[in-house]
Design brief:
With about 80 residues, this protein is mainly α. The chain has one domain. About 60% of the residues lie in helices and about 0% in strands. The chain has two helices and no strands.
């Protein structure tokens, strides 16, 4: 995985997680029962898809090993700086 793919998958996982979390909270605190349930489940699903994308797709662009978390500043396997990538 090159640095362009790493940045793209990191963005996708963060965007899905944030948008899913916001939609989940809107569904949690809205008043209509049908729309509340739909927003609640759609937001929760989007959040967990974002987490799954991070777990499956985020790999170090230098050594190729999976990263245990999306917010790391350096690879725990090879020590590559992930902030500049």
């Amino acid at each position: 995985m090159d640095s362009k793919d790493y940045r793209r998958w990191r963005f996708v996982s963060r965007a899905l997680s944030v948008v899913g979390g916001v939609v989940f909270l809107i569904g949690l605190f809205s008043e209509g029962s049908a729309s509340r349930t739909a927003l609640f489940w759609a937001g929760g699903a989007a959040f967990f898809v974002g987490v799954a994308v991070a777990v499956i797709m985020l790999k170090c662009p230098v050594c190729g090993d999976r990263l245990p978390a999306a917010w790391l500043k350096e690879c725990p396997h090879c020590g590559a700086d992930l902030r500049d990538i």
